[in-house]
Write a structure and sequence with these properties.
The structure is a single chain. With about 120 residues, the protein is α+β, with helices and mostly antiparallel strands. Helices cover about 35% and strands about 25% of the residues. The protein contains four helices and six strands, in the order βααββααβββ. The strands form two sheets. The protein has a four-stranded antiparallel beta sheet. Strands 1-6 form a two-stranded antiparallel ribbon.
Length: about 120
């Protein structure tokens, strides 16, 4: 991994509320939870929704432990499950990373920005 290419996101707190979060992890698997955490760490609020822009390569580089293929499979599974929604893009933006809306309803997972002390 080229650490000089990876930028650290602002500090966020990702909370898991059990037993719902445990059910989410069992349904989607640990790798999907790891990918979701990475997306949440880089997300921001837009129009009351949690939105993140990321490429498969960027996620794999940041996580270091998952290959691009594994990240791609986990993203597709989260999209199919309705956890991630792909924001349509213009043909002119074909080389831009994909933008996702994250839907955490009934997952037992929440994200909160932290404030500097």
């Amino acid at each position: 991994m080229r650490s000089w290419m990876v930028t650290m996101p602002p500090e966020v707190r990702v909370e898991h509320t059990y037993p719902r979060a445990l059910g989410f992890a069992r349904r989607h698997g640990a790798q999907s939870v790891l990918v979701l955490h990475d997306l949440l760490a880089h997300a921001h609020a837009r129009d009351g929704r949690v939105v993140v822009q990321a490429s498969v390569r960027e996620i794999a580089e940041r996580l270091e432990t998952l290959s691009k293929d594994t990240v791609n499979r986990r993203l597709r599974a989260l999209i199919a499950a309705g956890v991630l929604e792909v924001v349509p893009r213009d043909d002119a933006d074909v080389f831009e990373p994909t933008t996702y809306v994250v839907h955490l309803d009934n997952s037992g997972i929440a994200v909160h920005p932290t404030t500097a002390a």
